[in-house]
Amino acid sequence: MDAMEREADEGDDLLSELLKPLRLTGVFDSRWHVNAPWAIEGDAEQSCAVLHYIVEGGCWISGEGQTPLELNAGDLAVFPTGIAHRLSDRPDRQGVPLRAVLPERQPGTSGEIRIEGKGPESRLLCAGLHYDASAATGLYKALPWALVLDGPQVAAEPLLRDTLRLLAAPDRPVGPGDRLITLRAFEMALVLALRPLLRELAHNPAALPVLRHPGISRAMVIIATRFAEPWTIESLAREVGMSRSAFTAAFRSLVGDAPARHLTGRRMQEAARLLGETTVAQSAVPQRVGYQSSVGFHLAFRKWFGTTPGEYRTAAGVA
Are 267 and 227 in contact, with CB atoms under 8 Å apart? Predict the structure, then answer.
């Protein structure tokens, strides 16, 4: 494998690491039928990505201190960290709070917004995609406020396009298991949308500089894929050819976390998956995630999640 192939593989691994938080825990979706003039102010959402798909017409999205972006039919906008933003028919129009028109937005439910103006009509599919806050890495939180796929880019991803159209359909099938199916369909749509967007970011160092820092980028891949090895900050720094002090400073600056915390977070993420989704013996989990001491693992897990490994497994219903 030559250097270019290794770089591409590591880039793919890092993009995969970015997508790891996206195991959704709940979805609220809504269909908007709006005629100009209209504007709606969305609140900031905690541990929640927000998705807007333009079915018909168009709109503007605006955020504090951000350049407004125009969306047209077929475009998809994703707000990875649920930052507060406005949707409107014009970028300068002041809006009503979303909570005034959709006061209840509980995960697992759906809603509808209708605004009967005299201007052009737009139809949108909007969703709040809740994920486990403990799994969101500093790198994920550092993503740009909004990521946009235009209509041709969506069309170039047939599975994404067809999933969005199905979710946006007014006669979307309803029946047994519908809530789980909807959750997983939105989860797939989000991952399918972020994949090409993140690949674009890899070629735009101003947007996500860590992807262009060879040492820190490689360390991120190591943490994502080799977390079970007995790493220390010193050994990580040596592995990527940096001094401990330079490595720690650059990692914190580019990722937003200290390297030790990021490594712990990845180990805890895998531990939670093993305890909550598999029947791997609880006694085997510490070594599987890089802990030589069961006591050390127990203390780290409790500090991270606020519960013991045994209580976590019981709550997940894994025998």
Answer: yes
pLDDT tens, residue order, the chain (319 aa): 444 444 445 455 566 666 665 678 899 999 999 999 999 999 888 889 999 999 999 999 999 889 999 999 999 999 998 999 999 999 999 889 999 999 888 888 889 999 999 999 999 999 999 987 766 666 677 778 898 999 999 999 999 999 999 999 987 766 667 888 888 999 999 988 888 877 776 666 555 677 678 898 889 888 888 899 999 999 999 999 999 999 999 999 888 889 999 899 889 988 998 999 899 999 999 999 999 999 999 999 999 999 999 999 999 888 6
DSSP class of residue 223 equals H
Parallel, antiparallel, or unpaired for β 39-42 and 96-97? parallel
Residue at token pair 């693992």: 297
H or E segment to which residue 129 belongs? strand 121-131
Task: Count CB neighbours of 176 within 10 A.
Answer: 7
Pairing verdict, β 48-56 and 69-72: unpaired
User: Residue 201 corresponds to which tokens in the numbers above?
Assistant: 């970011």
Given the DSSP bridges, would you call strands 24-35 and 96-97 parallel, antiparallel or unpaired? unpaired
Quote the tokens at residue 304.
Answer: 């991270």
Q: In the block, which residue shows the tokens 């100009």?
A: 36
How far is it, in rounded angstroms, from Cα 164 to Cα 153? Answer: 13
- Separation of alpha carbons 211 and 221, rounded Å: 10
Six token digits for residue 297: 């693992």
